[in-house]
Structure formats: structure tokens, C-alpha cells
Amino acid sequence: MKELRYLDDVSSLVLNEDKCIGCGLCTEVCPHSVFELQDRKAQLVDFNACMECGACVTNCPTDAIAVNPGVG
Ligand code: SF4
Ligand code: SF4
After folding, report:
1. In a domain, 72, yes or no
2. How many angstroms separate the CA atoms of 61 and 25, rounded?
3. pLDDT in tens, 41-70
4. How far is the CA of 2 from the centre of ligand 1 (A)?
């Protein structure tokens, strides 16, 4: 999403690629298309679009994602 932006470089979102199993759930639930799957690993392709809603953290089966909702 490029139209509605949040502040740059303030999101607490962290992705641990070592834990990612490439299930793709984060790409499906994120309302702002922050993630894409590349070579069976999630990648942060639009970090600054993250609104810290927590949906990706809730749905990731391997705890590969962390965020502090509402901090940024
Ligand atoms: S916290 Fe919400 S907006 Fe941010 S990456 Fe996860 S699902 Fe997307
Ligand atoms: S939900 Fe978690 S395990 Fe699945 S692709 Fe995203 S980061 Fe990887």
C-alpha cells in the first residue's frame, strides 16, 4: 500500500528468517502487503507500511515475527 503511509523507520516489526518455514500466512493476513515470499522465505518488502496491527505475529506458526502493537 503506497497511499496511506505511517511514519518511516519506527515500526517495531522484526522478522527472523531462520525461523521462517515459508508457509505464506503473513503475506495473506497483512493488510499492507509488508511481506512477500521469495525462495520460500518471507521477506520484508515494505517495512514502513507496517501499522503494528499484530496479525502476522498472531498467524505465524513458528514465531518468526515479532512486533509491539501500537508502540510506533
Ligand atoms: S503487524 Fe500488521 S501491518 Fe505490520 S507486518 Fe504484521 S500484519 Fe502487516
Ligand atoms: S507466517 Fe511465519 S513461517 Fe509463515 S511465511 Fe510468514 S514468517 Fe514465514
Report:
1. no
2. 9
3. 999 999 999 999 999 999 999 999 999 986
4. 15
- Rounded CA-CA distance 58/72 in Å is 18
User: Residue 4: is its pLDDT beyond 90?
Assistant: no
Please report the atom of ligand 2 found closest to the CA of residue 23: 4
DSSP label at residue 45: S
Domain-embedded: residue 23: yes
Q: How many domains does the chain have?
A: 1
H-helix segments, the chain: 25-29, 55-59
Cα 34 to middle of ligand 1, angstroms: 7
Residue 49 belongs to a domain with what CATH number?
3.30.70.20
